[in-house]
Amino acid sequence: MKAAKLAFGLICLAILASNIATMSRWSEARGVYDDICYLRQAHLFQRFGAGGLDTNAVRDDDRYFEGKLKDIAFAEWKDPIRWPCHNPMPGGKVVLQYPPGTGFLLALFPQGHQVVPLYIAASLILCGLALSGIAMARSLPSVLGAGVFGALAVYLMINPAKASYSVAPTMALCAVAGFLTALWLARGKRSVLLIALIGLLLGASVNFRLPNALLAAGYFLFLGIPFLWTRSLATFVQGLAFGAGVLVGMAPTLAAQAINAGSALSTTYGSADLVAPAFDLAVFGQYLRDMQIVLIVLAIGATLSLLWSREGHVQQAAFVVAGNLAVNLGFFLSHPVFTPYYVVPIAMLSLWTLSFARLLQPAEAREAASVRREPASLGALPR
């Protein structure tokens, strides 16, 4: 088993090294609108600090964004109304549509060398958790499972994570939140501080992509339904701590919306981006032909498998994931717009949670499960 752990650990490190070598050759001027818009947010943070939350087009007085538009040969670079990723607000301002989190992380690195360090940092977090999972495995099947999943998770930081700068930090947060969720459920006495931290991380993920708000849905169902049934004070406190964590985590986005759109609950997205759910067979077909369907099948299969577990915390992790998958897949698969990364966050959060839930299974529970699966010996057969 030690040889298997070493082999999978080396595989994960080899994929990480290959990813870093590939990432080091990436260009920050690949002609994608989203890229330069995230970089504009980063530039505002570097110029104005917290004042960078205000993304009004008039603040481009140093012509930074105009220069980026010229670099990609955008014809209407002079007219802010025509700028990509920007929308006019009722007050007359033209502002960035994206939440501020991705730009904030990019701003931590020097201008011109921001994207590669962000992706490398996120990849290191994922690889660290993958190696931890391999080290925690206590049987050959669990080593194989942790090793294959860890290698897949690290590889995904190249494709599809490259499709949007917001995906890389989302992937890292989902991995950490998945581990903490399994840890929270594995403890006999569930920590209020730990569930608050999980809520904080999931709330913070909203600062990268607004649809990440759906990642908290399964937790609210898991905590809310038992409270409605039992009216337990402990369950209420857990739910309150989680909700408070989510709210604090997404505070930067609420502040940015208040500054740019006039209200914390008003979106900076234009009406063209607010697409109502409507099932579209063509969009569903795109998911079936995309890498995302593999992740969806893996997440659903692992959830169904663990729902039948007799180990309490493993089964409860599956309940959290099941609720989360139902809400998120129900939304995205009925959303008449397709991208190569829409369901990646929920799939990865689910798989990290289930993987660590199984790995954190107490030794005595593993032994009991092993005994239940073993056939009776000849000596024990009835005569």
Automatic annotation (TrEMBL):
Ranges that cross the membrane: 116-135, 142-158, 164-185, 192-210, 216-233, 240-259, 291-308, 317-335, 341-360
Residues in the signal sequence: 1-23
Keywords: Membrane, Signal, Transmembrane, Transmembrane helix
Stated name of the protein: Glycosyltransferase RgtA/B/C/D-like domain-containing protein
Organism: Bradyrhizobium cytisi
